[in-house]
Design a protein that fits this description.
Blueprint lengths: L4 H8 L6 E8 L9 E10 L2 E9 L8 H7 L3 H4 L5 H12 L3 E4 L2 H18 L15 E3 H8 L8 H7 L10 H21 L1
Parallel strand pairs: 1-4, 4-5
Antiparallel strand pairs: 1-2, 2-3
Length: about 200
């Protein structure tokens, strides 16, 4: 019995749970000093995709050149975009009580939680978060892939996409990486069910 058997049960049972695969792009790697610049998400259940969420975010500080080189997002693209305080409530409404899915979930969740904490404790911002951290159940496809496909030389999302022949032409953009994450989860479930 695997660690992620509950995921297959939640996805495949007749009453089936709803999942939201999501990804963020950021100005850097440290949630204490860097900011979210893009959120992408795909909500789905056992029948297929239910909805999509995608937005760029003005971080209020310049893009780190190294981050921009990875995701292709520039200061010019972000200049007229809304700040995170206006975007995050919409994302949270989109997610609702669904099970979250992310590749290397600690990274994405640490940025979301740091942003929630900042917005929640500020009080003077445009909204008050109903909670200081994400309350949702979370599936990390990085860990799930290690269980489903042991012995791979690398578990980066794009490498797993190539291994599983998934379309990754727009890698390192949030909505496409969220879609890849959803497809990876489905592949992991299929593979572990076949064992």
């Amino acid at each position: 019995m695997g660690t992620y058997d509950w995921v297959a049960e939640a996805l495949l049972s007749p009453e089936g749970s709803t999942f939201t695969a999501f990804d963020i792009e950021t100005t850097g790697l440290d949630p204490k000093i860097h900011r979210i610049v893009e959120i992408g998400a795909v909500k789905f259940d056992r029948r297929g995709v239910i909805g999509r969420f995608s937005t760029l975010i003005n971080p209020g500080l310049p893009m780190n050149p190294e981050a921009s080189a990875v995701n292709g997002i520039t200061d010019e693209q972000l200049a007229d975009k809304p700040p995170v305080e206006r975007v995050l409530p919409d994302f949270l409404r989109f997610v609702g009580s669904s099970i979250l899915v992310a590749h290397n979930a600690n990274f994405d969740c640490s940025f979301i939680n740091a942003t929630l904490k900042t917005c929640y404790s500020d009080g003077g911002l445009l909204w008050q978060a109903p909670f200081p951290t994400l309350p949702n159940k979370i599936v990390d496809t990085l860990s799930f892939a290690k269980e489903a496909f042991p012995g791979r030389p690398n578990y980066k999302l794009q490498n797993l996409a190539a291994f599983l022949d998934l379309d990754s032409k727009n890698a390192h953009r949030a909505e496409d990486d969220a879609r890849l994450c959803m497809e990876l989860l489905l592949q992991c479930v299929r593979h572990t069910q076949e064992k």
